[in-house]
Amino acid sequence: MAQNILVPIDGSPQAQEAFEYALEEFPDATITVITVLNPAEMSAGGTEMGMASYADQWMDAEEERAEQRFEEAREVAEGYGADLRSETVLGRPARAIVDYAEENAIDQVVMGSHGRDGVSRILLGSVAETVVRRSPCPVTVVR
């Protein structure tokens, strides 16, 4: 039975491990890698008059980073013969991941325990913890 697996990637080693785990454990699945661009991460980059320009520069740079991650993921997936899709979404990471799973018939989320921001709780990163609590489907957290 084919499954739809969602793997959030953010450039962290934990996300890479989760992606490779998904490729190994779900060889017949369609795997979607998702990168969430969080505007809250955009720091004030100038004067009020220059904010729109700075926001555009930030978005362009983040989209370029996301595309680089997707290209690296495609190269890895080729070795597994995997059916890989990629998506970039805008929003708060946990909410965006849960919303994407709800709206796209995702059967399982596979994600790293901590992302690139290093913010963590006792056992899980705050994004992973929120996704586990709110996801409409099973979540596998890879450490």
From TrEMBL:
Name of the protein described by the UniProt record: Universal stress protein
Ranges for domain UspA: 1-143
InterPro entries recorded: Rossmann-like_a/b/a_fold, Universal_stress_UspA, USP_A, UspA
Record SUPFAM superfamilies: Adenine nucleotide alpha hydrolases-like
